[in-house]
Design goal:
This protein is of the alpha+beta class and about 120 residues long. The chain has six helices and five strands. A five-stranded antiparallel sheet has the order 2-1-3-5-4, with helices on one face. Helix 2 packs across helix 3. The model has no long low-confidence stretch (mean pLDDT about 90).
Length: about 120
Amino acid sequence: GEVLLQMLERRLDNIVFRLGFAPSRSAARQLVRHRHFAVNGRTVDIPSFQVRAGDEIQVREKSRDLLVIKSSLDARKGQGVPDWVDLNTDKLSGRVLNIPTRASIGVPINEQLIVELYSK
């Protein structure tokens, strides 16, 4: 169950949302599909891309002036980011520091019920 949550948290669209570059997960998914983000300098347009520890996610140069990204960052000022990612607002980039643990995810869900459902 914990591995399932880790895989979901490490999706590129989720990390874009967690870093504050998008107002919602669905908006983050659309921004990734429209090629507005790069991982380690390479453009990625797959929302389910699994980001690893040490990877850097940055807003592409052409996309830095998008209103949705700027307004989302402004709206989430002061809220902070999870402890397993690091945000650099000056460079519009973030880095995954380590794999998230169950304690750092903070989603009120019983993942064991999901595992039991799919194991039938």
